[in-house]
Each structure stands twice: as structure tokens, then as C-alpha cells.
Write a structure and sequence with these properties.
By secondary structure, the chain is mainly α. It has one domain. About 65% of the residues lie in helices and about 5% in strands. It has five helices and two strands. A hairpin with a 2-residue loop joins strand 1 and strand 2. Helix 1 packs across helix 5, helix 2 runs parallel beside helix 5 and helix 3 runs parallel beside helix 4. The longest helix has 25 residues. It starts with 10 loop residues before the first helix and ends with a helix.
């Protein structure tokens, strides 16, 4: 099938999307375990346990490897892509979240005419701790294995 509807039969994409969806759903109870409060908005947020971006790219890579071969250029591209995503999650994006915490604290302390200089905080939960990325990778592997073992 070579039309646009073939996207709904793309096993690698469906597997990756499932991994993302499950990771986002898991963020709700894991947030509760840490913060002792429910935040249903965590389903749509970045950061937190597990990394949904990592789960997405790892599941994609494994399914691509299984479908076209682990020695294929397509699988190699998935490995590179996944490596960049995981590095970015624990590096640049995590640093961005730490900087946001500091800036938010500064902004809370700075007043002009008795009013804070900013009404809204910067988003602090942006990146991931290495354990959150590992959790996403494990979830991606497990999701891919389910697709391999039980898919058609």
C-alpha cells in the first residue's frame, strides 16, 4: 500500500506511538508517587518518569531493525536518532529545566513598584534525569517485544 492511509498499517510507527502513549500515561502515577498529588496534565507534559521521547525512538528502532534488518542503514539511522534524543534529554533539556528553576526564583524575588516582574513561571520540568531516560528505553524495548511477539 503506497497511499497516505498506509500510515495506519506502519507497524514501526504504531509501535513507537504506543510506547509514547504508555510512557505518558505512566507519568501520572509516577508523579503522584513523588509529589503525593495527582496531575492529569502530566499526560501532555515533557520531562518526568519515564522519558516518552526515549520510549518512542527506542521502540521505533527495534521495530525497524526487526522489519528491515539490524544491519540496515535504516536501523543505523534509528540508533543515531535515538542517541541524539537521549543525549539531548539528559543534557541540553535538563540544563534548560535547571536554569528555569533559578530564573523563576530570581523573578519571584525581583519586584517593580511592589509587583513581581513576571506573572508566569518558566517551565521547569523539561529534561530528564538519566534514570528517567533508562526507564523510557526499557519501556521502548518492552513495547517493541510485545509488538514482535504478538503482532501479526
Amino acid at each position: 500500500m503506497h497511499d497516505i492511509l498506509g500510515i495506519f498499517q506502519n507497524r514501526a510507527l504504531l509501535c513507537a506511538t504506543t510506547a509514547w502513549f504508555v510512557a505518558q500515561a505512566i507519568k501520572i502515577p509516577t508523579y503522584w508517587l513523588v509529589e503525593k498529588k495527582w496531575d492529569w496534565g502530566r499526560f501532555f507534559g515533557s520531562g518526568g518518569m519515564p522519558s516518552s521521547h526515549t520510549a518512542f525512538v527506542v521502540a521505533l528502532g527495534i521495530l525497524v531493525g526487526r522489519i528491515v534488518g539490524f544491519d540496515s542503514p535504516e536501523f543505523a539511522m534509528c540508533v543515531v536518532f535515538a542517541s541524539v534524543v537521549m543525549y539531548d534529554a539528559t543534557g541540553v533539556r535538563r540544563e534548560t529545566g535547571i536554569q528555569a528553576q533559578v530564573i523563576n526564583e530570581i523573578l519571584r524575588r525581583v519586584f517593580i513598584d511592589g509587583k513581581p516582574i513576571a506573572d508566569d513561571d518558566l517551565k521547569e520540568l523539561v529534561g530528564h534525569k538519566p534514570l528517567e531516560v533508562l526507564g523510557g528505553a526499557i519501556l521502548g524495548v518492552l513495547t517493541a517485544l510485545v509488538y514482535i511477539l504478538f503482532g501479526n
